[in-house]
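Why do we bother with holo predictions? Because pocket geometry can differ from the apo form. Keep that in mind while you read this record for zinc ion.
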Amino acid sequence: MSFHDDLKQQQPILYQILIKSFTSSKISHAFLLVGKNSGLAAHYIAKSLICSQEILACNQCNDCRRIDEHNYGDLIYFNGKDESIKKGSVEYIQEQFAKSSMEGKAKIYLLENIENSTPEAMNSLLKILEEPIAGVYAIFTCQNLSRVLPTIQSRCQVIQLLPSSKKLLKSQLINDDIPEDDINVLSELFDTYDECQPYIESELLEALKLEVFHFIEDLYCHRDNLVINVQTHLMKNHKDKEKVQLFLNMLVLGLRDLFHVKHSMSLTYPSFRSLYERVDDTDDEIVRKIDLVLNTEYLLNTNANVMLLIDSMMCKI
Ligand SMILES: [Zn+2]
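The structure, written out:
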């Protein structure tokens, strides 16, 4: 399978956003990708900005290859993974981009794991973003959105990546003879069979699956009941942080299904199909709701108050 098809299948939302903005030439000057393995997607955007072969990246031409090798004249690359990004690195970016282009195409700075930047570096980055220069693009990745300054987030197109599919894990789970929905959910949320094991045929998983179903049903069909049902049911029975996090992650998969059902793609919860078919929502709205839920989940990792966060999510959803 080509990388293109892979991206289309594994990151359909990212793919839709990119194809839409690149065909209409309304390309954001700053992207912030959120999620594990967002580096691959970040490089893909960088390649798409300079590749002359296709609308997005061809992944084969010399320019695409040089981006992957960090060997492209107008690409500056830093990664905060092992050592935090310092103010000096951001100043270097500013100096380089004040000079004229070396390759005659887009100039790109790609910073991975920007949450691991010093406060001074974050502030300098913000200054660059506040005065965008034509032809200069920022591509950032992070795993923890709550650690990125909201003022930086607001100047970027924030794209939440979805967990990648895991064929091997799926085949192991199929051997357990559990419902298809459960196989899908577990393989989406966990990386290894050992991590899944406590949840196989567990009451918690079944209960939370039902909560996801009711949440989506209330959200679209009985909106007035939503807040009260969340308070009296979900938050009463599953109020500790780990369970709420698991619920939010499972809810994201349900909301993503709404997107998938419209585009005839495979579902995480095939048993919810008749519910999904009753829902009428736009792609943009679904994406906004997914963002909101993912954001709430990220914020839960900090020491925030669970009830307050859920209340705030309920007001905005
Ligand atoms: Zn190319």
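Strands lie at 30-34, 75-79, 107-112, 136-142, 157-160.
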